[in-house]
Design a protein that fits this description.
The complex is a heterodimer of chains A (802) and B (355).
Chain A lengths: L1 E3 H7 E2 L4 H10 L3 E7 H5 L2 E11 L7 E6 L6 E5 L9 E5 L4 E2 L4 E2 L3 E3 L2 E3 L2 E2 L19 H4 L14 E6 L10 H10 L4 E2 L16 E4 L7 E10 L8 H9 L7 H13 L4 E4 L6 E6 L5 E3 L5 E3 L5 E5 L2 E5 L3 E2 L12 E8 L1 H11 L4 H8 L6 H16 L2 E2 L3 E4 L7 E5 L1 H7 L5 H10 L3 E5 L2 E5 L10 H12 L20 H14 L4 E2 L5 E2 L1 H7 L6 E2 L10 E2 L4 H13 L6 E9 L7 E10 L1 E2 L9 E2 L2 H14 L8 E3 L6 E10 L9 E6 L1 H6 L7 E7 L25 E10 L4 H11 L4 E10 L8 E10 L8 H19 L2 E2 L2
Parallel strand pairs in A: 15-18, 30-34
Antiparallel strand pairs in A: 1-13, 2-14, 3-13, 4-5, 4-7, 5-6, 7-12, 8-9, 10-11, 16-24, 16-25, 16-26, 17-24, 18-21, 19-20, 21-22, 22-23, 27-29, 28-29, 31-33, 32-33, 34-35, 35-41, 36-37, 38-39, 39-40, 40-41, 42-44, 42-45, 43-44
Helix pairs in contact in A: 1-5, 5-12, 6-7, 7-10, 8-9, 11-13, 15-16, 19-20
Chain B lengths: L1 H15 L4 H12 L4 H7 L6 H41 L17 H15 L3 E2 L5 E3 H4 L26 E3 L5 H8 L5 E10 L10 E11 L4 H16 L6 E8 L2 E14 L2 E4 L4 E11 L1 H6 L8 E8 H9 L12 H7 L16
Parallel strand pairs in B: 1-4
Antiparallel strand pairs in B: 2-3, 4-5, 5-10, 6-7, 7-8, 7-9, 9-10
Helix pairs in contact in B: 1-4, 2-4, 5-10
The chains are: A alpha+beta (802), B alpha+beta (355).
Amino acid sequence: MKFTVGWLKDHLDTKKKDNELIEKLTDVGLEVESFDNLSSDLDNFKVAKIVNAQQHPNADRLRVCDVDIGGQNTIKVVCGAPNAKKDLLTVYAGPGSIIPKNNMKLTVSKIRGVTSYGMLCSESELNLSEESEGITELKSSNYSDKIGKNFFNNNNEKVVDLSITPNRPDCLGVRGVARDLAAAGAGRLKKISLKNIKKNGSQKIKVSITKDKNQGCTIFGSCLIEGVINQESPQWLKEKILSLGQKPISAIVDITNYVMLDLNRPLHAYDADKIDKEIIVRNSKKGETFEALDSKEYKLEDDMCVISDKSGVLGLGGIIGGTRSGTEINTKNILLESAYFLPRSIRKTSKLLNIDTDAKFRFERGIDPQSIELGLTKAAQLISEICGGKISKFDIKKIGKYEQNKIKFKISLFEKITGFKVKDSEIIEILTDLGFEVSKNKLELDLKIPTWRPDIIQPIDIVEEIVRIKGYENIETLEPEKKRIKDTLNKQQKLFHFLQRSVASKGYFETVTWSFTDSKINNLFKENLKEIKIVNPISSDLDVLRNSIFPNLTFYLKKNLDRGFKDISLFEIGPIFKDSEPGQQLTVIGAIKSGKISRLNWNEKERPVDVFDIKKDVIQTLVEAGYDRQSILIRDKSPSYYHPGKSGSVYLDKDDTDPVAYFGDIHPSIIKKLDIKTEGLVGFEIYLDNLKDNKVKLKDQKSNFEYSDYQKSERDFAFVVDKSFKAQDLIEIISLIDKNLIRSIKIFDIYEGENIPDGKKSIALNVIIQSSEKTLEEGDLEKINKLIISTVETKSGAKIRS
Amino acid sequence: MSDIKKIKDEYLKKLDGDLNIESVNQIKTDLFGKNGKISNSFKTLGSLPTHERKKFASDLNSIKDELQEKIDSKLQEIDKKEINSKLENEKVDVTLPEREFNQGKIHPVSQVIDEISSIFSEIGFSVEEGPDIENEHYNFTALNTPDNHPARDMHDTFYLDNNKELLLRTHTSPVQVRTMLNGNPPFKIIAPGRTYRSDSDQTHSPMFHQVEGLHIDKNINMGHLKGCLNYFIKSFFEVDKIKMRFRPSHFPFTEPSAEVDIGYEMKDGKIVIGEGDKWLEILGCGMVHPNVLKNVKVDPDKYQGYAFGIGIDRLGMLKYGINDLRAFFETDYRWLNHFGFDPLDVPSNYRGLSR
């Protein structure tokens, strides 16, 4: 919403300085986006005449123009516009100018070997219209005596640009803004001065609103103005339109725009001679078409509110008019429309057809239904003043009755919500200034809501009105209470934060990537999960929600490898999606590690990262989080995106059905598909939702501290087992033999090859044996030795290696 | 007597020489061996007259001790010399690099979330979460933003179905709805998390982070809201003086609504938060709309309170001088290393938010 301070003062009688008014606007909730002196920027744009245009020596499509900008010498400008020819009056922008359309700053520059001092501008570059084909053509009758003068003539007025929130349609008109300022003490709201206009005869074009279901129009006001001479707008009106960066078109169009911007009362002018017999406001039928003023052909659906005549659709009510009945410079008779359209209907239609116009924007937010006559009067008066013509009586058609909203407001609610007190009399004054009709009834106010405030529905809205006009700075700042109702984090959240930092502490960089990803990469990792498509993705390579953390991790890993990094450890903790309903998501840590360990190291031998590096990270993380290593069970099953022989899954307990983690080498075919070039690529995933609560809590008392000082004995064994036999099972067999005596089992060698039969391997272990009751004698040790060997041999089919 | 004196002098002199361990051992044998000179002298004791014997024995003993001591110290000296020369040979260049270690990093968004949680924990808030996929009802309708409300256009929503029923939440506010539906007042929660809008440029990314705040009780008013946010902003930016401005705004789910600006100035091309004369919008807030309370079965005549929503990424950018929002999500190893935090730097109340 833009306007000049001068325009504001048409409605506001004020002695405040500009910056005070700007501050006040912010204080009452009308956010000031910018407050700029248009002229300072726009002084660079001059009316100019091309006195000579020659072919550019090095470019077919360019011309070198000598441009008269009122000085002694002409200026050379290189121009690509087809219409840049001798004697054309146009708009010149000098070096240093900022082009309104793209905010580009002009400099002196060489274009194909010829120096160009500035630019000749198209209407589109000046934000005057969409016209970008050629440079602006100015009429010689109006501009021939203005060469060298500023093109934008706006009396040095500053333009205010407000960002109006959707609840304040009334402030889409300058008057609404003035009213708020007046209520906040920044001046006095002037009365609208309307001269009595002479109305002759009845409006001869019949208007009817059909009683269709969900009729989107409830009031249709109109008047006929016959015998007008449409023309260019007078200077004052042009300046108003130009000051907002819009382009004046003709008096009739400019007037309807002006009334809309001034009073937030959209109007539409039809060429009355182009209307076939009568106006029918009705619902459209599927398949009807019309050409709108944006020169596009629209195909309508059922039940859109259209203004039609006997021949068909003239326009979409409250959204856009049609070309068939549009006014032109030679229009003689006009039908002026001032109507009320329901926001819901406007919104539905414009969404379906994807149209956005000033009128649509306003009707969608709610126009004052009581402003029909005011709009007609003001516009008709201006038209007859400027273009002449005979004004008919107003014809106002209505379906249904409009009831003004009423609210009973308990005055105490204000203090209850805001925490501070305002005197009753001041409350009444504020509300009255805002246009409320107020009558006090003991502790309550009976309020009639201004018809231009569709946003005010219930008492809480009244509180907001009072507090924003009174000023938010009156609200006290109360010290926060430190009372806690609940623990800050629950168990799962604590686990999240712990694991996050635990993984990072192992040398991984945490990253945060989109929750969506490229379906092509996602497919490599999605397993049997459902693909969840985004209907309107931001780009075609971010088209699905991720089923795994790995698609994004591998994608960005590759990017970093391409940057020249080799040994990369990345992880992300976040959601993955199983399906498209709320809650069908899991929290997962995905981590990935590439390249080598000890690359280019002077004292250690380098080697590619491998499955046992990543297994260490995942197991250590779980152990740090409090899970017992002894109970953790590894299985060699894992999702298909891992190397089938070098990966596994982790279970907290051997009876668990759901793994808490996977780890391993990434499948070589995926590495190839993604074109990842690295010596090794391993990863792990931890599923937080599968991590059960620890049975033993940190806050619990620890078990008794028991230890043995009796002598420890170490024994080494080597068993020859089938190659497929798992080390984990061997350890379990031995540890179960005597839990009191066998304190630790360590595998210190795996051997295959010479002296070992094909299909077999040798596992060498070191076992520590210690009693908590006595020093073991040679006989006891021999007994347990024999027991270990015989048990392993029976249970595993292993042979002790001699 | 003069004999043994001579032996003493002779051997003390020998022992002063540059000897190896073998020669010292030879001297030891020469003196104290079975037929050693000192041993033999002791053997002569018996043949001496009684009056000389005592004196001679005493002299001999003291010479023996002296030589013995000299030999021991010579042996120690040689030993020490040998160790020293051995260690000298073992010397390494300790300026060579240590064994490799890799310092991990925590993403700035995670760090900021932990900082925020720590601050709000201090004033009694607990942390709630909600799903990233929401339905239209929780994201909009229950939050007093019906289908025909123009405010919906301001949220460029990602949809997951053609009926626009399922979507990626455009803000963290649906967590308010879920929290209130699942419990009874009072409520005092924050809800940090991912949010999504189909918008992408220098200052917008299709995914970003918000933290929602909600405090509902019997008499929570706008003064509490102001106090809470004032406390938060000061704690978060770790500055004593900060200018804050509440100005009226509009959100469908709060009434009255406000936006909060903080003061800043530009120094060397960076935004410095504090008392500058420029204003920067950092959050939206307000008193929870009675319609929202009704939608979640909380009686607006008995309970009232405030809610707020803050952009987490933006807070992080301001505090830590990060210019480009999109870089947060681009996983550039160099960026993560530069802006990331050591995992041991856990923000907490007692040790402070940051080092």
